[in-house]
Amino acid sequence: MDKGGDHELLHDLNFQKERYEAEHKITFKNPKPNLLDKLKESGPVGGEENGVKSKRADDSAKKQRKRPEKGVDMERLADNLQRLGEEDLLQVVEMVHNNKTADTYTKNDVEQGEFHVDLYTLPDSLVRMLWDFCVEKLGS
């Protein structure tokens, strides 16, 4: 099974019906273009789950490259956010929740007391707001 080609699977259907159908979801990692074309003939083909970069991933990469030009050092912002006190972090979480978009990745792990956010998925206005907040609170 390491190589492509046809593979036979032995099974017993008992043949109680004239026709049997069972749909199965299959994920191909890094499929070749020819395989994707053939799969598209039979129905819709997903994006990232099949190893293909989605438009959203491309947009995130573009935002990542553009941010430093806008005067915000994303690594420094991440470091400064970690240096904030508990009360300030609560304000940061509130700012993120109030200003996030559909593309913003957040994860709130209440049991562990952790809040995760992907800074590169935040809208530019929120990145600037967080930057200014850190400068105000930390002076750097």
Question: Which outline best applies?
Answer: elongated
What is Rg?
Answer: 24 Å
SS-derived structural category: mainly alpha
Helix fraction? 40-55%
How confident overall, as mean pLDDT? 77
Largest sheet: 2 strands, antiparallel
Side by side, the strands of the main sheet go 1-2
User: How many strand segments?
Assistant: 2
Keywords:
mainly alpha, two-stranded antiparallel ribbon, 6% strand
Write structural notes for this entry.
The protein is built from 5 helices and 2 strands; from the N terminus they run ααααββα. With 140 residues, it is mainly alpha-helical. The protein has a two-stranded antiparallel ribbon. Strand 1 and strand 2 form a beta hairpin. Helix 4 runs antiparallel to helix 5. It is elongated and about 75 Å long. It starts with 32 loop residues before the first helix and ends with a helix. About 9% of the residues have low confidence.
Task: Spell out the blueprint of helices and strands.
Layout: H1 33-42, H2 55-66, H3 74-83, H4 86-99, E1 106-109, E2 114-117, H5 124-138
Antiparallel strand pairs: 1-2
Helix pairs in contact: 3-5, 4-5
